[in-house]
Amino acid sequence: MVEAIDYLKQYRALINKAARMIDVYNQLDADVGLKSRSADGMPRGSGKSDPTANYAIRLAEARRNALNASVEYKEAAMDILNTINSAELTEYEYDIIFARYVAMPKAYGARIPSWADIAHDLNFSMGHAKRIHGEALKKIESRISNDTKRDFA
Prior knowledge:
Layout: H1 2-35, H2 51-86, H3 91-102, H4 115-122, H5 126-146
């Protein structure tokens, strides 16, 4: 079951990685106006490197990294969601797995919901929610061991 948990946790890790890369790009993009000294487009013959050109290169690299992280996240998300959907989970198993590993609901402040939160939402005791979670993990574990599992780390 540890393998299934690690597999499912990759989803949030990739979301966080993509979000960080996009934040870096957005911050650099917002700073462009502050970094630019001359915007007349004329070449400089001083032999020195142009700080604006260097900044533009770094900005393009940050954008490329953000796009790559976004594509990586989307591919991994599709694989993980397909695995969850093909594991033949019951409605409650799906709700628990989705809440614990996939969803980032505003109700939880974009944090991983606690077992108490999940149990309360489903009107279960925490023990019952954890038992259902364990059954769902067994089904997912079986599914990923039957498939060629992809490591996204």
